[in-house]
């Protein structure tokens, strides 16, 4: 679901989401016919920030395919699928992505690591980039779905502890899927990286649904008993402060040296002065908000990489620091300097 992130008072994440939602929606409208990958709706918030908010139900693969088609059309895309990057090394001014046998999968002077939680393993060991400088965590989740037969049980989606989607229709779902489904999700398992679909997670979704719509929860449990549920379990990637990591990778040892220099002792290192690894960027840690944040963050990062002026108004420039992948390295360096 693409929807606003409602909080009592604005946070960096809610402000980023406020920028991301209209951007993602515009991309959907530009590239994917409504009904063939997304559909506009409203969502009733029942818990905190109660009210009805505009939203969209999205099959992310439809948007990703549209982006890939567009890039292929520009003849600007060479893809290597199912190729796991085991390490990234810098040789002769190029970043080389190596497979597990040390063979070069691809190389370029500029690299964006956008592998969610897998980004840590790819970057670990580069100039002090470790789990303390890049504190990202896996948060496994499972979505429960079932074919929709007859009328939906509610007029629109509702959210409290999870989101209940009473109906989603899509003319382009994979052939093995029913064209109408209802869904409830999702579970949160911090630290878990297992993507097995489990009945126990369906049951947890039923418990969350019980508070919102007891009749739908009964249907979920009936379908679970009859083995009629579909499930999707995957890994979110969350940073320690829940804000994405977007920008140039820091050179941690050089940053530590800089922090020891007079003038930087107590203050913050200006963004422009932060030592960076040449040509290495991160675009990761979207947590539960990838649909909302990916397009806007990627666009912002591309502008940075091209040396274009930031699209952010002055009042929002603090968000650049909030999502800077160097922010945790600064904290470590400052502590060591104290
Ligand atoms: C159950 C569930 C429900 C969700 N619901 C929503 C929702 O309603 N709305 C929303 O906005 N977001 C939702 N999310 C979150 C959303 O899916 C993520 O925020 C989004 O997928 C992040 O996009 P990404 O491209 O950064 O990472 P991913 O989509 O995780 O993609 C990372 C890719 O990197 C690849 N990779 C990893 N390591 C390597 C390596 N070493 N070499 C090569 N490739 C590698 C992986 O195979 C993967 O394809 C949900 C997530 C889950 C699990």
Structure description:
With 338 residues, this protein is of the alpha+beta class. It folds into 3 domains: 1-79, no CATH class; 110-135 and 241-337, no CATH class; 136-239, D-Amino Acid Oxidase, subunit A, domain 2 (D-Amino Acid Oxidase, Chain A, domain 2). 32% of the residues lie in helices and 27% in strands. The chain contains 9 helices and 14 strands. It has helices at 12-31, 60-73, 118-123, 199-212, 214-225, 252-260, 290-305, 318-323, 327-337; strands spanning 38-45, 51-58, 87-91, 94-98, 104-108, 111-113, 136-147, 158-160, 162-169, 180-185, 189-190, 230-239, 245-250, 276-284. Strands 1, 2, 7, 8, 9, 10, 11 and 12 form an 8-stranded mixed β-sheet that branches. Strands 3-4-5 form a 3-stranded antiparallel β-sheet. Strands 6-14-13 form a 3-stranded mixed β-sheet. A hairpin with a 5-residue loop joins strand 1 and strand 2 (51-58). The radius of gyration is 22 Å and the shape is globular. The model has no long low-confidence stretch (mean pLDDT 93). Flavin-adenine dinucleotide binds next to helix 3, strand 7, strand 12 and helix 7. Residues 1, 84-85, 114-116, 118, 121-122, 141-143, 185-186, 234, 236, 284, 286-292, 294 line the site of flavin-adenine dinucleotide.
């Amino acid at each position: 679901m693409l929807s606003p992130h409602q909080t009592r008072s604005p946070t960096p994440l809610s402000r980023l989401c406020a920028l991301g939602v209209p951007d993602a929606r515009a991309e959907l409208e530009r590239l994917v016919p409504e009904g063939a990958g997304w559909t506009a709706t409203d969502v009733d918030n029942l818990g905190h920030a109660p009210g009805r908010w505009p939203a969209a139900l999205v099959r992310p693969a439809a948007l990703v395919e549209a982006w890939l088609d567009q890039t292929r059309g520009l003849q600007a895309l060479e893809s290597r699928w199912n190729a796991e990057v085991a390490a990234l090394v810098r040789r002769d001014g190029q970043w080389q992505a190596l497979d597990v046998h040390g063979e070069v999968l691809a190389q370029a002077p500029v690299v964006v690591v956008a592998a969610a939680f897998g980004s840590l393993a790819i970057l670990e060991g580069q100039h002090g980039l470790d789990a303390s400088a890049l504190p990202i965590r896996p948060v496994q989740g499972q979505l429960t779905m079932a074919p929709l037969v007859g009328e939906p049980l509610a007029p629109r989606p509702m959210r409290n502890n999870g989101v209940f989607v009473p109906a989603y229709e899509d003319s382009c779902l994979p052939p093995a899927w029913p064209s109408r489904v209802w869904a409830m999700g999702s579970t949160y398992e911090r630290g878990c990286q297992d993507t097995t679909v489990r009945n126990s997670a369906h049951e947890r979704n039923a418990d969350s649904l019980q508070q919102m719509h007891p009749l739908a929860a009964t249907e979920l449990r009936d379908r679970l008993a009859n083995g009629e549920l579909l499930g999707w379990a995957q890994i979110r990637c969350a940073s320690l402060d829940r804000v994405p990591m977007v920008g140039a990778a820091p050179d941690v040892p050089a940053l530590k040296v800089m922090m020891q220099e007079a003038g930087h002792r107590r203050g913050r290192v200006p963004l422009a002065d932060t030592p960076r690894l040449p040509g290495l960027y991160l675009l990761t840690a979207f947590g539960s908000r990838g649909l909302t944040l990916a397009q806007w963050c990627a666009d912002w990062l591309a502008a940075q990489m091209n040396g274009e002026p930031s699209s952010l108004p002055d009042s929002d420039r603090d968000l650049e620091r909030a999502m800077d992948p160097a922010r945790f390295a600064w904290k470590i360096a400052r502590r060591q300097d104290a």
